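Hey team,

Filing this mostly as a record. A colleague (T.K.) asked me to run one chain through the structure pipeline before their review meeting, and I want the input and output archived in the tracker in case anyone asks later how it was produced. No errors, nothing strange. Just documentation.

Input sequence:
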Amino acid sequence: MNRPDYIEQRDNGYWILGTRVSLDSVVYRFLEGLSPETIQADCFPTLTLDQVYGAISYYLTNRAEIDRYLRESDEDYEAFRQRNRAEYSEAHRRLDAMLEETPTARS
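Output structure:
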């Protein structure tokens, strides 16, 4: 039996084949405890259930590689966030002040 490919590597990342949905988007929901059915219906309705199961299967089969990729992506994002905050410190200070003044939905 031929097993279809569900994941492709492009643009330095992993993607659900033929979509704009990243593998990490599905994997993070799975690691949060969501079922494949919930991931498909509530998070990514453009994916088929077969694609979601294929993505999870790919992750579980290549767990060490994907976990390393996720960790490196998180580190890259954090470094970018810190550089951005330093470069635009005045804008961030003003935004932070505005957020403190804005009432939340809980208030």
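Quick notes for T.K.: The chain has two domains: 1-61, 64-102. The mean pLDDT is 90.
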